[in-house]
Write a structure and sequence with these properties.
By secondary structure, the chain is mainly α. It has 6 helices and no strands. It is globular, with a radius of gyration of 21 Å.
Amino acid sequence: MSLLFFLYFACVIVVTSVLVVALRNPVYSALALLIMFFHVAGLYVTLHAEFLAAVQIIVYAGAILVLYLFVVMLLNVKRDERYHVQAPAAAFLGLVLFTEIVLLAFQRTYQTGAAGPPEVESAGNTETIGEVLYSTYLFPFEIASLILLVAMIGAIILAKKTLAEPRQP
């Protein structure tokens, strides 16, 4: 039964990920991204990582997607119809990605032995994640927060420049 749930979540995630890139309207793209975030949270629930599922919904579906929509609506990006220039490069990269997927699917080397993280006896999901995040991965966590801050400041500066320019009818 868990295999069926995994296949459902995986198929929806793949389809909505393709839609995020393929849709021309950024609002529809953001809605497809929202559906993908919820299905990734569903995958976390099937892995018994309920805390990560809640964080996925609150942080990504709640905060990051709203920030993305805010920036898209604020910038009011004009579309450049340069898809004919990008089509050969996109076709080549798609072919490379498809080849890698096929090669990985037919690769027959499997690792044997103990796999997975070491067992933690008394700590739950939240305690383990907090301990690892604020000890081992503290520096990358802080770097990610600085990158998000710089991106937000850059979006505000770009929005001010586009709002300051006079609009022509």
